[in-house]
Amino acid sequence: MKYCPLCASFLEERIIDERPRLACTNPQCDYVHWNNPTPVVAAVVEVNGSVVLVRSKGWPEKFFGVVAGFLEAGETPEQGALREVREELGLDGRIEDFLGIYSFFEKNQVIFAYHVKADGQVKLGDELAEAKLLPPEKVRPWDAGTGPAVREFLVRRGLHNGRS
């Protein structure tokens, strides 16, 4: 970001609140790009005892994750997680457990993660290329993004020791 979205003046890095921030160079404009993290919701979805892993369109063929998406204005994280399950899997789910809040620094996101149970047949939404259902004991967590939530889900089921 080079220019102020309010007045089109150049932005420069300044220390504000003890952090480097981009701020407008126009003395009559007080714009600061705070660069706060984006809230994301994630659901470790369980259908008939299996965990649903999904591959988004454009992802490599062996790259699967859990249902996730951006929190919408006016919804709680719980509502957002259930909306994502409906949109991506065509399932009505119910929240079984809150898994935690996870920082995903690489994408400047904060993730609210839930264990969601659902019944029915998975119907892929427009954003997904593929889904697979695995017994929980075959699921392996990954280190970044939603991976720590998957690890917590497995720990609570006695299927993981909590370490990487």
TrEMBL record:
Superkingdom, natural source: Bacteria
Hydrolase as UniProt keyword: yes
Pfam families: NUDIX, Zn_ribbon_Nudix
All copies of domain Nudix hydrolase, residue ranges: 36-156
GO molecular function: hydrolase activity
Gene3D superfamilies, alphabetized: Nucleoside Triphosphate Pyrophosphohydrolase (3.90.79.10)
Keyword terms of this UniProt record: Hydrolase
Protein name: ADP-ribose pyrophosphatase YjhB, NUDIX family
Lineage: Bacteria, Pseudomonadati, Thermodesulfobacteriota, Syntrophobacteria, Syntrophobacterales
